[in-house]
Design a protein that fits this description.
CATH superfamily of the largest domain: tm_1862 like domain
Strand order of the largest sheet: 5-8-9-10-11-12
Radius of gyration: 22 Å
Number of strands: 17
Oligomer: single chain
Strand content: 15-25%
Bound molecules: iron/sulfur cluster
Length: about 425
């Protein structure tokens, strides 16, 4: 086999794709095939695509076309495309981009290794070649989704909800801890649905508790928690278990009942308020991250005003805002796209401007306090890290100075003396 040929894996999209690529990379490594992070050096390029919304699809297509260019210049022997975009549009892509040697869907590890002439090692599927900094790793606890959200194409690409058996996840997490991982970020399409299919009950709390017993794992961060039927035992586990960070990412998407109904979110504004009150009362220093969609077809100016009032009242720590993207084969497709992109962008801008003021005021409450910081890099005179309030890539950072030698991937106590709307500034506590 072209075993000596170099392989490069390009990962697009979300952290779930990152985990898929890390599994694939480990299988490539186990087959002693050389890996390069630079596609220009590779003989074979594998692109793990995203097909979620328009912008993501464009990025995937552009990345494929760049690799096709490399191939047309004779610099690349083989081009493989996999992942969500390929899962969703395989036939069309095969016709439109014939230069691609083969298209695979999602989680097609065996097929890809076969295509590379290697031997797939199923028994080692839990092993990963990390692409994140070595002190943190995403742990994907399930794949697919059973929710019928009207705007979302993910179930079309990832199928129905499928939990990964607990012992397999514990084993995977132990392997990661042995490699020096200290922060585990729990991900799925909906993390709160964990276990309902294979254990006939939602048991995310039990999984979090067992993960927290693994030596070396110091921080466990919960992302992608769905708001309806949020398990009380998960709230209690967060409130009582020091290793489970007082941080939750709960994508809410909207607060107006008529929009939530049309979005088929299965939750009302009253239930949303109740959940947030419960979280704040049981975990007073909880950091709340959420995401919203603006410009959904039936969102009126009045609905949008409700969203503005909602974020002013709740004061989330972190917000992401997306503009509605029409997706064929989703149930909202028939509603069309009546709100102009210009108006959607205006609404997104308004919401994020209000949030930046809220975020600044929240950050100011940390001035004078000391935070445990996981240090990741250095930018000019500042060491850069994250506190329990900061998920990687999407939230703020803590920047601090120090005369002492600082080791990346370690925790340090930092006294905060200043902030801006996203980041905190401090000095090392010796
Ligand atoms: S919960 Fe809704 S938005 Fe999230 S992946 Fe499932 S269907 Fe999509």
């Amino acid at each position: 086999m072209r075993k000596r040929e170099k392989i490069s894996v390009i990962t697009l999209g979300c952290s779930k794709n990152t985990v898929d690529s890390e599994r694939l990379l480990r299988q490539i490594q186990l087959n002693r095939m050389p890996i390069t992070s630079d596609p220009n050096e590779a003989d074979t390029v594998i692109i793990n695509t995203c097909g979620f919304i328009e912008a993501a699809k464009e990025e995937s297509i552009n990345t494929i076309l760049q690799a096709v260019e490399l191939k047309n210049k004779g610099k690349l022997k083989k081009l493989i495309v996999a992942g969500c975009l390929s899962e969703r549009y395989k036939e069309t892509l095969e016709k439109e981009i014939p230069e691609v040697d083969v298209f695979f869907g999602t989680e097609k590890y065996q097929e890809i290794i076969d295509e590379l002439g290697g031997k797939f090692k199923y028994e080692l599927l839990g092993e990963r070649l990390l692409t994140t900094p070595s002190h943190l790793a995403y742990l994907k606890i399930s794949e697919g989704c059973d929710h019928p959200c009207s705007f979302c194409a993910i179930p079309l690409m990832r199928g129905k909800h499928k939990s990964i058996p607990m012992e397999q996840l514990i084993n995977e997490a132990k392997l990661l801890a042995d490699k020096g991982v200290k922060e585990l970020i729990i991900i799925a399409q909906d993390t709160t649905d964990y276990g309902k299919d294979i254990y006939q009950k939602k048991n995310l709390a039990e999984l979090l508790n067992k993960l927290s017993k693994i030596d070396g794992i110091e921080w466990i961060r919960l992302m992608y928690a769905y708001p309806s039927h949020f398990p009380d035992d998960v709230i209690d586990e967060i409130a009582t278990n020091p290793k489970i960070l007082n941080y939750v990412d709960i994508p809410l998407q909207h607060i107006s009942d008529s929009v939530l109904k049309s979005m088929r979110r299965g939750v009302t504004s009253k239930q949303t308020y109740k959940l947030l009150e419960k979280l704040k009362s049981k975990i007073p220093d909880i950091t709340l991250r959420t995401t919203f969609i603006v410009g959904y077809p039936n969102e009126t100016e009045k609905d949008f005003q409700m969203l503005i009032d909602f974020i002013k009242e709740i004061e989330f720590d972190r917000i992401g805002t997306f503009t509605f993207s029409v997706e064929e084969n989703t149930t909202s497709y028939i509603l069309g796209d009546p709100i102009s992109q210009k108006e959607k962008e205006r609404r997104r801008r308004v919401l994020m401007e209000i949030q930046s003021e809220i975020s600044y005021e929240k950050n100011r409450t940390f001035v004078g306090k000391t935070l445990k910081v996981l240090v990741e890099s250095k930018e000019s005179d500042y060491y850069v890290g994250r506190s329990y309030r900061d998920a990687p890539e999407v939230d703020g950072e803590v920047l601090f100075t120090s005369n002492k030698k600082i080791k990346f991937g370690n925790f340090y106590d930092v006294k905060i003396f200043d902030c801006d709307e996203y980041d905190l500034y401090g000095e090392l506590i010796i």
